[in-house]
Amino acid sequence: MKKIFIRINNFIKNPLQPLVSANNPERGQVIIIVAMAMIGLVAFVGLAIDTGLVFVGQGRLRRAVDAAALAAASNFRQGYDIDELRDSAYELLVLNGVIDPLADPTLVSQVDTCLSLPEDPELCVGEEEGGRKLVRVDATGTVDLAFLSVIGINDVSISASATGEAASMDLVLVIDTSDSMARDTGGAGQADNDPSVCNLDNSCYPFHDVKDAADYFVSQLVFPYDRVAVIAFDREARIYDFVDLEFEAEAADVDDLGGFSNDLTAIGNAIGGMKVYDPRKPPSPWTGDCDDMPAGWPGPCRRYISTIYQGMDCPHFFATGNPTDCTTTNIGEGVYDTGNLLASDGRREAHWVVVLLTDGAANSSLNGSYCPDVWWGDPFCRSNLEANWKRYCFDNSYTWCLKPKIDGGPGGELDDSTDRKYNSDDFARDMFDYVGINQDATIFTIGLGDQVVTSLPIVDGQGAGERLLAYAASDAVGAGLYIQSASSGDLQAAFDQILDRIATRLSK
């Protein structure tokens, strides 16, 4: 045997050397062994190449099916047509070479949802909570073999399956209802601009357009999979209770609220029930003219001169210099209540989304302690010097610096002995941190009109409102999108941008 290996080695070194002679019959055995080894080597190489072809084909099919599942899931909208989802998937399969564009796609692929296969346990998941928006794509294909075709194995069948999921959402609409939402109702001095007048017939503008755009937006969601909560804010925030069918001003009982609904009609009623801030209502229920308001009465009032409406006024501010009872854009509390609602009632498996719309900048907060006298000058409750504008926060142990209003809310507490400069803008930023960073909610913000970009202080060309909204939607906080809408006529386009950004994902 040793001689045989020596001869094989010599053959490798000098293949032209004669191996067979009449005097050495063992050399014939070497030829047979070498031939068998070569055949085995060729077979091994061929098998490896064909196996590689199969793996490459399988990976290519898998990627194509993944893309098709995501494309189909991205079209999972309210009132969707299963054929539209299938067309989206087929288009991606054709582009990836899985389907012959001239052939019947159903011969090699299948696209299904719970609607088409209502008994499928993989697609009909969590139906008791509204379900999940799942789309499954199955596809088959063949891989042509290179070497095994010699022995009659010409191709191998492969298959792949992917389930795309359009994120089921718990979405909170946070809408500004401050008195400026009635500014475009009539001409200057017109009584129609008085919220107590235009609220009666839903004719407050731009608020009428805001509600129409919000209605359109929620109509594009997918019910019963998605759920929506509605929060209105002006001097205070109010959560709509879908059980009692009214806005609740006190968030301390947030656990008892019917804060979310997957009923489009009920959600539409909640949006339609929002009113522009009216000083005749609590917490400052003064029904008369500002001139008739008793000395020291807190809160804004409606000022008329010779029956001509002048807008909101606040005599208490002129008497004391303290604006904390007068301001009506409490963005911070609106976001604060959003966080508490998500914490108490949000589905853990759902995508948490916040959409906040305002036409101004933060100038109000939970109570007067967040508007110390250092910020009593215009702009109210915000840093008023461009050069010194900064964020004030005294509790470095937390992302936020605010004593919690209810259990489970933000932690930290301001030091009452400190000369505080913590203001309404700081409060709003801390609440966006609470919701975006700590609760991992995606935050979209819409700034309506000029006041967002012209609100003081203006820093690096950005108004206070614009800076706040951009901060909330930044990658570091809400990872969403800030949209500036010049007029209420642009709001539907703004909401369309948000719909396009709501993510899909591969479930499996």
TrEMBL record:
**InterPro entries per record:** Tad_N (IPR028087), VWF_A (IPR002035), vWFA_dom_sf (IPR036465)
Q: Which residues cross the membrane?
A: 30-56
SMART domains with a match to the protein in the record: VWA (SM00327)
Q: PROSITE patterns from the xrefs?
A: VWFA
Q: Where is the VWFA domain?
A: 170-502
- UniProtKB keywords: Membrane, Transmembrane, Transmembrane helix
What is the recorded name of this protein? VWA domain-containing protein
